[in-house]
Specification:
The protein is mainly alpha-helical. The protein has one domain. 55% of the residues lie in helices and 0% in strands. The chain contains 2 helices and no strands. Helix 1 runs parallel beside helix 2. The radius of gyration is 12 Å and the shape is elongated. The two termini are 24 Å apart.
């Protein structure tokens, strides 16, 4: 379960992905999760990798 700023970061990334999909250019996009020790970066990144294919069917996660 994500809390506070973790959920905010996840939602921000979803918004960024949605904008990239609307752009429709054949380009690769990279997202980075940054933060200090113990802030849950790995948790956010793992949730994003699991959620992105379900939320955005046209996105390929590698």
């Amino acid at each position: 379960m994500l809390v506070g700023a973790q959920q905010d970061a996840r939602l921000h990334m979803f918004g960024t992905i949605g904008k990239a999909l609307l752009d429709r250019r054949k380009a690769a996009h990279i997202g980075a999760v940054q933060g200090k020790l113990g802030t849950g970066k790995a948790v956010i990144a793992t949730r994003l990798l699991a959620d992105i294919p379900r939320m955005f069917h046209e996105v390929e996660v590698r």
